[in-house]
């Protein structure tokens, strides 16, 4: 059994795959919000995967650590991926990767003196996944002007630019995903622009489906990527990176990555998208098998909090009904049927 714990507003990142196709994990998965993890008097017996930790408020962060400790007192045999108290923010993650000699570039605080930077640089949010917040900045004056243009410098950092162009002169971004002990390639995107978005609607994108398939079927960069995940302390997530002078350079590691369903992408990209989904489901299946938990079970855990309830929408109402009747592990199958009926 597997239990995902993540913010309610970002559960689409796992639901869009798990609810939309046949797989052997239906009736083997619980999907909980952090509010539920903190407030339910009983919790599932499962291997736990904590996602979206950077989005937690300080009270929920502290509460999640305390509740997890209480759960593990009851069931010390349970495996946990991404313990909240072992996941650090992006600034610290990038600092670790640089200190370990994996990254040659740095992400530094917004108030770092220009004299200490290697230009060009750009601004980016330190907690979001929205990419650069400025153009490339080539000197101290351009940097100062870009910072002054921000609504507030709070929540931003300065990233030293690296030239991620490949042998063809195109900007290439790769991705690897980790699920417990298993790593696999999860994307290869190419762009004419230095901001390689990896979006099919990006006019600067250069489709190379055959090259992506070859990358997805191989193990290129795996040794370095495993070390990067270990240095960051992340056991579930996706790392985006580029290879510069033969060395992977990590842009970020996202603990709640969204995988695009193959049916949503252009026809020429579907084989690659399907391969990524297949590897993802294989990784979850292997993790579930290692859990050794044969059937759904709940355990009473002390320390449940009384938290304000959100207004029930259609999806959350179905979720609550399944939970009340002890069938929450059926949710991915039930939600899938409701999607097909266009009720959700």
From TrEMBL:
SUPFAM superfamilies: Glutathione synthetase ATP-binding domain-like
Superkingdom: Bacteria
Listed name of the protein: ATP-grasp domain-containing protein
Lineage: Bacteria, Pseudomonadati, Pseudomonadota, Alphaproteobacteria, Rhodobacterales
């Amino acid at each position: 059994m597997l239990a995902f714990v993540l913010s309610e507003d970002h559960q689409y990142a796992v639901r869009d795959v798990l609810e939309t196709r046949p797989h052997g994990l239906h009736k083997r998965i619980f999907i909980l919000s952090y509010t539920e993890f903190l407030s339910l008097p009983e919790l599932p017996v499962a291997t736990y995967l904590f996602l979206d930790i950077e989005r937690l408020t300080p009270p929920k962060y502290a509460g999640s650590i305390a509740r997890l400790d209480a759960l593990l007192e009851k069931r010390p045999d349970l495996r946990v991926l991404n313990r909240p108290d072992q996941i650090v923010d992006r600034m610290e993650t990038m600092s670790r990767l640089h200190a370990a000699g994996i990254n040659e570039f740095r992400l530094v605080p917004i108030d770092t003196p220009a004299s200490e930077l290697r230009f060009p640089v750009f601004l980016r949010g330190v907690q979001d996944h929205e990419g650069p917040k400025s153009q490339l900045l080539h000197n101290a004056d351009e940097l100062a002007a870009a910072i002054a243009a921000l609504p507030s410098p709070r929540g931003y950092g300065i990233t030293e630019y690296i030239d991620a162009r490949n042998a063809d002169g195109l900007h290439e971004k790769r991705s690897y995903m980790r699920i417990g002990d298993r790593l696999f390639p999860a994307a290869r995107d190419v762009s004419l622009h230095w901001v390689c978005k990896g979006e099919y609607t990006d006019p600067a994108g250069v489709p190379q489906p055959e090259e992506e398939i070859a990358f997805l079927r191989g193990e290129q960069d795996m040794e370095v990527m495993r070390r990067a995940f270990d240095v960051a302390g992340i056991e579930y997530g996706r790392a985006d990176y580029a290879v510069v002078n033969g060395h992977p350079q990590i842009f970020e590691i996202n603990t709640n990555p969204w995988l695009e369903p193959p049916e949503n992408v252009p026809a020429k990209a579907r084989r690659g998208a399907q391969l990524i989904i297949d590897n993802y489901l294989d990784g979850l299946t292997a993790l579930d098998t290692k859990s050794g938990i044969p059937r759904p079970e709940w355990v009473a855990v002390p320390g449940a909090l009384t938290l304000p309830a959100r207004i029930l929408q259609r999806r959350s109402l179905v979720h609550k009904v399944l939970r009340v009747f002890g069938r929450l592990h059926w949710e991915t199958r039930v939600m899938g049927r409701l999607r097909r009926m266009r009720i959700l």
